[in-house]
Design the sequence.
């Protein structure tokens, strides 16, 4: 069991590292572009990009986190908050919650995942959420996409495979990905293969494990 204060500290540390790495980017004027924040949680990263003048699509399926996300940007028309999980198709899917999740605690929502085998989630504690087809969204988007952030607790590899197969990465200036193979044993080899594929194709705008 992870102490809730330890989880809070880890979340704050991750945000601090993210801020430092994003600092050069969020100083730029990204007006008239789109930032797609997948796994927005309570909106800390979306808030950083909102300073740039970009339009934000913030996707978050966990209802506890989404409540805070939606409230945070209720007066900002440039941030569209969507209570859905990004996936390779539209529909519904099980979202597995952290094994220590209790009540309305926000801190453990960062670990909610559609991957049942993720080490820190509970197979018994799950809810059904809606999914949106990220691949079709990217295909149909007419605005320039300056940033796609993928921090979706294990769904990244399937999404990246489709993005690369269909060469959609060419529509996006920068793709920031947090892989989770340290929590999903079955993803260790797929992540390694993804790294090799990115290198083989000489794709320079996909950054794995950027935090």
Sequence:
């Amino acid at each position: 069991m992870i102490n809730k204060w330890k989880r809070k500290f880890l979340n704050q540390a991750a945000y601090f590292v993210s801020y430092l790495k994003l600092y050069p980017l969020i100083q730029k004027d990204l007006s008239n572009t789109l930032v797609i924040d997948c796994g927005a949680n309570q909106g800390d990263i979306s808030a950083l990009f909102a300073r740039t003048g970009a339009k934000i699509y913030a996707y978050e399926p966990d209802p506890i986190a989404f409540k805070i996300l939606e409230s945070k940007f209720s007066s900002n028309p440039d941030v569209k908050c969507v209570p859905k999980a990004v996936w390779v198709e539209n529909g519904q899917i099980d979202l597995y919650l952290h094994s220590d999740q209790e009540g309305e605690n926000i801190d453990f929502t960062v670990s909610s995942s559609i991957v049942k085998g993720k080490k820190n989630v509970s197979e018994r504690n799950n809810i059904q959420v809606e999914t949106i087809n990220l691949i079709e969204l990217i295909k149909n988007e007419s605005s320039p996409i300056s940033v796609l952030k993928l921090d979706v607790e294990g769904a990244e590899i399937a999404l990246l495979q489709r993005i690369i197969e269909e060469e959609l990465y060419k529509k996006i200036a920068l793709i920031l990905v947090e892989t989770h193979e340290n929590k999903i044993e079955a993803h260790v080899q797929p992540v390694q293969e993804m790294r090799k594929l990115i290198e083989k194709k000489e794709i320079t705008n996909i950054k794995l494990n950027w935090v």
